[in-house]
Structure formats: structure tokens, C-alpha cells
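Troubleshooting entry. Yesterday's outputs looked truncated, so today I'm pasting the complete records for two proteins to confirm everything comes through intact. If either block looks cut off, that's the bug. Protein one:
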Amino acid sequence: PAMLDLAQRAWQALAADTPLAVARLAAGDTAALPYLGAALHRFLEQFPGLQGGLDRLERETLEALAAGATSPIAVFRAASAAEARPFFGDTFLWGCLNRLAGAPRPLVAIDGPEPRLPQWDSLGSERWCLSLTADGERVLAGEADAVVLNGIDRWLGGTHLRPGNVWRWDGTRQELVPPF
């Protein structure tokens, strides 16, 4: 019963229109589901960062590129190594890279047989070469904000991130910052 109750509360928190319930649940007692607290915390790190406007996976991706990774697989390996536990698969990362490259002010450049990484072809990914754009370098250096440069229209659970409703994650204080 304790596991089912906690799972139900977690689902309701994730489906809520703000991430506040997720933050409260992550900070509380999740012992009935031992991995839930860390998973919810990692979910919160997918909100745009207070500094730079990148979520954690976007930051890990840009850092991998800045460190010299140029193929999607090399970026996948580097970003995966930055995670304490498995968080994403290749399809999820390809979507992240495509979003960063397809933004009005791209942060990533994709050079290959198509302008975007196909979601279904991780084995053929060596045909693409990735790099940081000048804007990507500026965002990674903290000189620009990805949300300010490109806007935002994305769902994280039940929270619709859009102009006027941009929740941010403060990685230094490990807490949510409401829209301002």
C-alpha cells in the first residue's frame, strides 16, 4: 500500500501544471520506492538552468561537443558518462540535438546527409558530424541564455514551459525558481 500510494502521488505530481509538487515529493520521504527521489530530482534538472537556460542534458551535450566529441555516438557516450544512472537513450538524445540544431539561433550544427539526425538510425550515425555554433559557445560560457535566444515551448510532465511560464532549475542551490 505504501508503494502504491507513493507511486500515485508521484504520477499526480508529474502531471500537475507546475513542478512544485515534484520538488516537494523529491525532497520528502520516498523510501517506499527507493529510486524515486533521485529520479524526480533528475527530472527537475531538465528544467532550463537559471544560468544559461540549458537543461542538464543540453548542458552535458554542449560540454561533450566543447570537449571534442563530433559524432552522435561520441556525444552519447560523453553525456551518458556524466549521469549517475541511465537517464536517456539514443532517440531521446537525438531529439535533444535536433532541437538544439533546429532552434532559430542554433546552438549545435549538424553536418551530414540530412540536416537532422534520424530518430531511428543510431547505427548509421557516424555519417553525421556535430559541432558547437558560436551561440552554443556563448551559452555554454554563460555569456548568453538559450531561452532568451530561442524562446521555449516545451512540456515537462504537466508543466508547459512557454513565455511567461518558464520555471528554472538553480543547480547551485538545487531548487526550482518560479517564473519571474
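Protein two, checking that the full record survives here as well:
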Amino acid sequence: MARFLIAVWPMYGHVFPNVPTAMALRARGHDVAFYTGGKAVDLVEGQGFRCFPFTAVDGAYFESLLAEGYFGERSRLKRRRRQLFIYRHWLIGTLEGQIQDLEEIVTAWHPDVLIVDTTMWGPILVTAERHDIPVAIYSWTVGTILPGPQGPPPGLGLPPPRDWRTRLMGTFVEGALHLMTAPIRRDANAIRQRHGLPPLDITVAEYTGRMPLYIATTVPELDYHREDLPPSVRYVGPTVWSGPAPASAPAWMERLPDDRPIVYVSEGTLREQEPIILRAAAKGLANRPLHAVLTLGGRRDAASVGLERVAPNIEVRDWVPDTAFFPRIDAMVTAGGASTVLGALSAGVPLVVVPTEWDKPESAQRVVEAGAGLRLSPDRCTPTRLRQAVERVLGEPSFRANARRLAEAFAAHDGPEEAADLLEVLARSRMPA
């Protein structure tokens, strides 16, 4: 049997998609461990997996950096500068710590395959080559973020280059991003050279496509049917997991009305982020012919976000078991986290996406391009506009039809098992006969 080490950042949106594949590998008799930090350590150990916690990586600094976010900046230019600042300190500032931690883990535990988060660069840039261990990139986003002529510049949620206007816009933005991210590439190469490795002549994002395996937990229908991706990319379908499953559905789910649409509103688990979606939904959907369930994500209370008093057709819940709830709802309002979007679409649920930051604009644009929902800018997320978007998604059958079409595409895959198949093949290619 083989040993698989999953190196992943300790945000739930990053960790959760890895758990079903880890379970599938363990069920086949393999030894699976995680390298992560913070709250994710207890989470993965609670599922019976060994966890090597961050030691040299400053987990407190990392979490405080990401918690600040960059959407709070009013100016778009300042948001972009703040975004680049965070990315540089996150991706580069933690590299030496990752490398030091992984050096000890690899020497003591001897994994056969490294399963790596797309944004955890230590294993990709240094560890894999120094120890001759194959890397499988685990892309948990709604679409792949690999650059190529058929995809938009990643991170901004731009449309794909399908005509001269979108191609021109993509070329301009890509050129600007290449200049703005030059310091990140320079720093990454300096660290490689410090560890006796040659510099890269391509971006790190491109380099991830040169790993032996790139697992995309989505489907081509949500990735613009791209044909410009490297052969290492394999679509396996979603690997959705929303935490330990409750023994039974909460009692309040059984009391939901069946004579009106059910709308689920979630803003994710970041408690530091301004709750613009929850507040707009509480006002905009009040006293409408629907029933809305608003979740606080398990990390805030109603009073702290101004939702202690809501209309009779709205209920506020501390936490909602997404997987159990998705089949019961008619529409979803979300900030656009990948697991939430893929989970809702797996149940054929159309979406209103209000993307704030990180990968969320990309998720929103792919939902729009697939015809499975609407995108509402956070800057324009007023109660009226949000209500209009929800009523349109509920009222126009095409959104539900396209969401169900995607659900059928998902159902053609068994994400965790297909990922485990690919990982076993990669492990066998390294292990002696």
C-alpha cells in the first residue's frame, strides 16, 4: 500500500474537498496523512487521519493576513494592490516555513505521493524535486486556474475570450497582471536557487500544470470546455463535503413550509468580513412569498451582524448542514465559495452569487456562463437588487434547467473514487515492483 501526504491550507474551503478523496484512499488500505494547521488539525484528526501540524509556518500570521481580506477597500486600484500584497506575503512569505516543515515530515514519514493545494507552493517549488516525490495538484475550485489561450486571466472573474473584445481585454489584463506579479515570481525563483534548484522560466501557475497529475474537482461544462490544458489535467467531478454528517436532519428542516420556495443564504465562514449579503437578504426578502434561511456560518451571532430581529418569513441559523439542506431548497444566495457553489449545483439548485474576493469572482462568472444563475456585484448588493435577482432566478425556468443539466454532468462522475484511481496509478509509477 502507498502513503499519501495531503498538504493543504487550513481554511475549510480548502480542506473539505480533500476529505472525501482521503477517505476513499483510506478505504482502499492506503496510509493518508495531512499537513495543515490551525483549526483544520482537529478537524482532520477527528476524521481519524494523522496530521502533521504547521510548525515553522506562522499559522497565526497566516490567518490574520487572510482574515483582513481586501474587499473592504473602496477603490478598485487599492483592492488590487492589497490583493497583491496579501498574495505575496501568503504565497512567498510562508515558503521557507513550508519547506522546513516538509523536510522533517518527508524524512521521517516517507510519503509516496504529495497531494498539494494549488496555492501551497513549498512542495511544488522545492520539496518534490529535492526528494524526487511525484506531486498531484488538487484543484478544488469551480474552474481550473491554469493559464492558456482559451481561458481568461485567473482571479478576476472575466469572461472567456470568445470574441475580439474579450480577447483584447484578456490580453491587456494578462499583460498587466504579469507585470504586477513579477516580484512574486522573482522571490519564488530566489528561494529555488537558495535550495540548489534552477529558476523557472514560467509562472508558478503554469508550472503546476507540469506536475504529473492535476486533479480538477469540477467538470468541463463549468470550465468553458477548454482544450488548451496540459494532459496532466483530469476532471473527476466534485468532491463535496461539509463536515461530519449529523445523525439526522435538524428538526427545523422538517418544519419548513412546503407552499412557497425555500431560499438559502450563506456568506461563508469568514467572521471578519462585512455581512453585506446577509443584511441585504434580511431586508430585501422580508415579507415576500418565499421562505429564506440565513446561516451565520457557525462563527458569528445574530446580534453581531444586526439580524436579531427579522421578518416572519426569514429564519437565522447559526450553522446549516449544507449537504442535507441542498436538496430541499429552490435557490441559493452565496458569496461564491467553491464548495458551496458545487454543492448547490450538484443538487440542481440555481444561484445568485455575490462574489467578494479570492476565487469567488471566478466561481460567479462560471455560474453565469453556464446559465445556472446570476452574478451581483458586492458594490451593488442592495436589498432591492438582491430581491430582484432572487425573484428572477426563481421565476425563469432556464436557471433551474441549466443547474439540473450540470447536476447530471456531476452525477456522471464519482469524484472521490476517480481521484483515488488516478492517485493510485501515480503512486504505482514510483513504487518498486
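Both blocks look complete. Sanity check on protein two: The chain is about 45% helix and 15% strand.
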